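S.,

Sequence below, as promised.
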Amino acid sequence: MTTHHMSPSDTPTDPPVRARTGPNEEDRAPMSFTVRVFIYLVGVHFIAAFLFFLFYVAGAK
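The prediction came back faster than expected:
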């Protein structure tokens, strides 16, 4: 049984690395995730404002 020895020309070459010029599509979060985070942030602020309003009205006496 013989073993195959790879010569330097048999090694796979890596593709050239592109210079980064800005954010790529891979760097961005999916649109559904972005929308969900925005809705959660708006919802949490709405609930916080509602609780603030309840304490404000209750303490107005």
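The two ends are 95 Å apart (CA to CA).

Coffee later?
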